[in-house]
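Figure 3 (text version): structure tokens given as input.
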């Protein structure tokens, strides 16, 4: 790893654009949760599933795995801009980049409300209007979207994604890689095991076993959730 302050964003879709907007306007960030204190530069965007970004950027874009070693060598920080239900991929790719010596950045909007007693992990993305109440735990590489609410005492595992407008009531437990869809509601004291996807607008009234897709009011089993994660760019 080179001794510089270059940033690599993994993922070239619209979540990447969100991250770029934050980096271009650091005054919009809550710097308490950011690890960089000096000027940083977005240098690279990498995504093997995108031919080219749908937006203008000064960063260099790559989609060929053979370039990854050079990109990592010339980077210092990273952000994995993979959203939707791909929390496991976001987490595993982040861990691979950590192994290569890069350091994760968090992007936390200063317009999010976060209780001082909340425990917030590394590499998180928390958007404007999100509310995170007291004695909650948000583990590494989670995304909390715009206007989502996480009530008191909730425990959230690695790589979770709470989408726009969703509400998670108090004392809820979410396992690793859980995705909560837009405007969904999770009632108090519910346990949702790892890998579960809750559909948009659903109301969860009882515990859910791992790797399920549920939807409706009340939420019911729809199918098994299969997680996809391509780590082939890291292979020699």
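Below: residues designed for each position.
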């Amino acid at each position: 790893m080179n001794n510089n302050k270059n940033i690599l964003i993994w993922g070239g879709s619209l979540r990447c654009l969100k991250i770029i907007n934050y980096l271009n306007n650091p005054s919009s960030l809550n710097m308490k949760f950011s690890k960089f204190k000096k000027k940083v530069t977005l240098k690279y965007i990498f995504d093997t599933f995108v031919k080219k970004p749908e937006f203008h950027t000064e960063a260099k874009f790559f989609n060929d795995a053979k370039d990854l070693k050079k990109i990592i060598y010339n980077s210092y920080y990273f952000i994995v801009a993979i959203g939707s239900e791909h929390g496991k991929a976001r987490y595993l790719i982040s861990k691979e980049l950590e192994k290569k010596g890069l350091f994760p950045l968090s992007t936390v909007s200063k317009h999010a409300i976060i209780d001082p007693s909340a425990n917030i992990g590394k590499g998180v993305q928390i958007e404007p209007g999100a509310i995170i109440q007291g004695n909650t735990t948000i583990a590494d590489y989670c995304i909390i979207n715009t206007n989502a609410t996480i009530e008191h005492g909730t425990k959230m595992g690695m790589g979770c994604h709470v989408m726009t407008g969703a509400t998670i009531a108090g004392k809820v437990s979410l396992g690793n890689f859980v995705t909560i869809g837009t405007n969904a509601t999770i009632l108090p004291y519910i346990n949702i095991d790892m890998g579960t996807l809750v559909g948009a607008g659903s109301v969860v009234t009882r515990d859910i076993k791992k790797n399920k897709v549920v939807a409706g009011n009340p939420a019911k089993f729809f199918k098994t959730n299969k997680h996809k994660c391509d780590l082939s760019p890291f292979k020699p």
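The mean pLDDT is 94.
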